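Class, study these two lines:
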Amino acid sequence: TQSTWGGNIPSQLMMRIGVLLVLVVDVAFAGKRCKITIDENYVFRAQKADYEIKASSAQDIFFNLCKEDHADEQCRGKHGSFAIVKKASKCYNLGGDNEKPKFSLLDDKDPTKGYKAVITGGDRTAICPSGAQRSLEVEMHCNPEKKGFDFVCQPDTCEDPKCHFKVEIHTNLACLPESDSWGWTFIIVLLLGSSAYFIGGSFWNMKRNGKQGRDAIPHIEFWSDLPNLVAEGCTFTKNKAQEMYQRLTDKSPQSQPAL
């Protein structure tokens, strides 16, 4: 038999739709960003896609604060690091193998300004002073209005001193989020799930059960009675709270008769 919304088959279908929506939203958020935690108290975000900086002298800087395999893609098999610089056909690592970025706040007294990442241990060549290894310093400046990113280099080559690259990035991802991403994920999943439930359920009832208008709403009896159920729940909770308060006051020293 089938009720307003039907029996086992429609219920299982809606459950699967709900699970699918959760997975889709989770993948959409997780696939684009990663989290960066500094001092165990501040959680920033970073894009999983490479940052590409086109400096002067035909030098392109690629870096990634979430993963280290992008250099293989840009440098035709050259072993990857978190950052590389590419000039024509030549590629140089700006970080060592599996050398993860070191993160810190731009301003210890004001975390809302953003954070800094330093990547070291890169390739060493004859042009590097005193045999220094190439490195990269990235300052991530908070700009709530910037959905993508802008970059600033001083000087235009982004290289100062030689073999040490420094880049300023201005983006909203460098801002501390007002709330953790799971909150927005929950809200989106709730809205999508509710829409699928009511729209899909109403469509099913109209097509399969011949329902029309208000009667086509899934579980209409439950939703019609929901205000009464909420009111009864509030009354029950209020009465229990009053009973508990009365018991506590009856046992207090002030309520005991004088001897």
In short: Residues 1-11 have pLDDT under 50 and may be disordered. DSSP finds four helices and eleven strands in the chain. The longest helix spans residues 220-250. The radius of gyration is 30 Å.
